[in-house]
C-alpha cells in the first residue's frame, strides 16, 4: 500500500512510517548479529574477531551502496508527491540501470583490492585468513544487497515501508537457519556465515521484485521507461553519489578506529564487535527516522509544502530525543549483559571492555539523532552535496580521536571516536538546517 505523505498529521505520518523501517533495520542487523552470535559460540572468539574485523569494510562497501540507492529514489519520491506518475516511472527505470552498473563496478573493485585493504588495516595475523574469506564472499554477493536496497527504496519512496519489512524479517530468519546449518552441520566456519548472509539478502530482494510486479501497478514499467535518460540520471547521481559518499566517509573514519583496535589485539576487536552489535540494535531507530525524513521531505518538497517539512522535522526531534533518553539509560546500565549472547570464552577479559564501549556511546545518542534526522531530511529536500560537509566533520571527529587512541594504545579512546563524530556533525547540521530552510523558501518562491 502506497502512502501520500503530503497530507495528514506529520507526527502520525512519521511514526507510522518510521516504526516498520526501524523493525526492518533491526532485523537487517540480524544478518551480521546472527553471524556474530553463532560464530562466537560455535567457532570461538577468534572467529568472532575475524567477522568483526571486516565490519567496517562491509560498512564502507554496503553503506555506500545503500546510500546510493536511497539517493537514486529521492527523485522518485518527489515525482510521486507531485503526482507525476510517468516521470516517476522513468526515474525508477533509470535508478535500476544505474544500480546495475554500480553493482558490477563495486564487486570488481572490492574483490581486487581486499587483501591489500586488510593488510593496511593491520588485521591480526591469527584472524587474517578467516577475515579475508568472510569478506570476499560478502563482496561476491554485492548484487544481492543492491537488489533488495534499490527495490525497498523504491517502495519507500511511494510511502510503503511495511512490505520491505515483511520480506526482511523472513530473510533474517532464513539467515539464522542457514547460519546454523552451514556452521554447525556442515562445519563451514566463517565462510558458512557469509554464504548464509548473501543468500538471505538475495531472497529478500527477489521477494520485493515479485511483489512489485504483482501488486504495485504504479511501478509496472513500459519499455520506454527503461530508456537511459541523461537528464534524469544526472539528477539521481547528484543526490545518490553524495549520499553514498556520506556512508563511505563515515566508514573511512570507522576503519581508522578499526585499525586502532587491531593494534590492541583480538580481545579488543572481539569486545568492540560485541559492543557495536549491541549499539546497532538500539540505534537503528535513528537510521529509521532518517529514512523517514528523506521520504517525507521529498514528497512534501515535490508538493511545494515547506511548512509541512518544518513540522515534520519538529515531530521527528520529539520522537528521537525521547527515544535517545530512554534507550541511553537502558544501555548505560544494562547493555553489557547482552554481550553474553556473543561471548563463549575469555569472558573475564572481554566483557569489561564491552561495558566501556556501551557506556561511551549511550550518553551521546541525542547528537546521533540530529545527525540522522537532519542529514537525511536535508538530502530528501534535494541537497546532495551540502550534507557531505557534516560527513567531513564526522570524519575529522572520528579520525582524529582514532589516531590519538592508536598513538596511546587506548581502548577507551577508540570507544570515544564515534561520539566525537556525532557531536561535531550534529552541531554543523543544526546550523545547516536553518540555511537550507531559508534557501528552499527562496527556491519555491514562498
From TrEMBL:
Sorted UniProt keywords: Cell membrane, Membrane, Transmembrane, Transmembrane helix, Transport
Main location: membrane
Molecular function GO labels: antiporter activity; xenobiotic transmembrane transporter activity
Membrane topology: Multi-pass membrane protein
Residue stretches spanning the membrane: 12-31, 51-75, 96-119, 131-151, 163-186, 192-216, 318-338, 350-371, 383-405, 411-436
Subcellular location: Cell membrane
Pfam family, one: MatE
GO cellular component: plasma membrane
Statement: the UniProt record of this protein carries the keyword Transport: yes
NCBIfam families: matE (TIGR00797)
Listed name of the protein: Multidrug efflux protein
Species in which this protein is naturally found: Blautia wexlerae
Lineage, opening ranks: Bacteria, Bacillati, Bacillota, Clostridia, Lachnospirales
Amino acid at each position: 500500500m502506497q502512502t501520500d505523505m503530503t497530507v495528514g498529521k506529520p507526527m502520525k505520518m512519521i511514526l507510522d512510517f518510521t516504526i516498520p523501517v526501524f523493525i526492518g533495520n533491526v532485523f537487517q542487523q540480524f544478518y551480521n548479529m546472527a553471524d556474530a552470535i553463532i560464530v562466537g559460540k560455535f567457532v570461538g572468539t577468534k572467529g568472532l574477531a575475524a567477522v568483526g574485523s571486516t565490519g567496517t569494510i562491509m560498512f564502507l562497501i554496503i553503506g555506500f551502496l545503500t546510500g546510493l540507492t536511497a539517493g537514486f529514489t529521492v527523485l522518485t519520491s518527489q515525482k510521486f508527491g507531485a503526482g507525476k506518475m510517468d516521470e516517476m516511472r522513468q526515474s525508477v527505470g533509470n535508478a535500476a540501470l544505474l544500480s546495475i552498473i554500480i553493482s558490477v563496478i563495486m564487486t570488481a573493485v572490492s574483490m581486487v583490492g581486499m587483501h591489500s585493504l586488510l593488510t593496511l588495516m593491520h588485521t591480526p595475523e591469527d584472524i587474517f585468513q578467516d577475515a579475508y574469506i568472510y569478506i570476499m564472499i560478502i563482496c561476491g554477493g554485492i548484487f544481492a544487497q543492491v537488489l533488495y536496497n534499490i527495490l525497498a527504496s523504491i517502495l519507500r519512496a511511494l510511502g510503503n515501508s511495511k512490505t520491505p519489512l515483511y520480506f526482511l524479517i523472513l530473510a533474517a530468519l532464513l539467515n539464522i537457519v542457514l547460519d546454523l546449518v552451514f556452521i554447525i552441520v556442515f562445519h563451514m566456519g566463517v565462510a558458512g556465515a557469509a554464504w548464509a548472509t548473501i543468500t538471505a539478502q538475495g531472497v529478500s530482494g527477489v521477494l520485493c521484485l515479485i511483489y512489485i510486479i504483482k501488486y504495485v501497478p504504479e511501478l509496472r514499467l513500459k519499455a520506454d521507461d527503461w530508456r537511459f535518460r541523461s537528464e534524469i540520471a544526472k539528477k539521481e547521481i547528484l543526490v545518490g553519489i553524495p549520499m553514498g559518499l556520506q556512508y563511505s566517509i563515515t566508514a573511512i573514519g570507522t576503519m581508522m578506529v578499526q585499525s586502532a583496535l587491531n593494534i590492541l589485539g583480538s580481545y579488543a576487536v572481539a569486545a568492540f564487535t560485541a559492543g557495536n552489535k549491541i549499539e546497532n540494535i538500539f540505534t537503528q531507530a535513528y537510521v529509521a527516522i532518517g529514512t523517514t525524513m528523506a521520504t517525507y521531505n521529498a514528497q512534501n518538497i515535490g508538493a511545494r509544502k515547506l511548512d509541512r517539512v518544518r513540522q515534520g522535522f519538529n515531530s521527528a526531534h520529539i520522537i528521537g530525543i525521547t527515544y535517545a533518553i530512554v534507550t541511553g539509560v537502558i544501555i548505560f546500565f544494562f547493555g553489557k549483559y547482552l554481550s553474553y549472547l556473543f561471548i563463549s570464552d575469555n569472558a573475564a577479559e572481554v566483557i569489561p571492555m564491552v561495558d566501556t564501549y556501551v557506556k561511551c556511546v549511550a550518553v551521546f545518542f541525542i547528537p546521533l539523532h540530529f545527525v540522522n534526522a537532519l542529514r537525511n531530511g536535508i538530502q530528501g529536500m534535494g541537497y546532495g552535496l551540502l550534507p557531505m560537509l557534516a560527513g567531513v566533520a564526522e570524519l575529522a571527529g572520528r579520525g582524529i580521536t582514532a589516531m590519538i587512541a592508536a598513538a596511546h594504545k587506548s581502548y577507551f579512546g577508540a570507544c570515544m571516536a564515534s561520539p566525537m563524530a556525532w557531536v561535531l556533525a550534529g552541531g554543523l547540521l543544526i546550523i545547516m538546517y536553518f540555511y537550507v530552510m531559508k534557501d528552499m523558501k527562496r527556491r519555491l518562491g514562498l
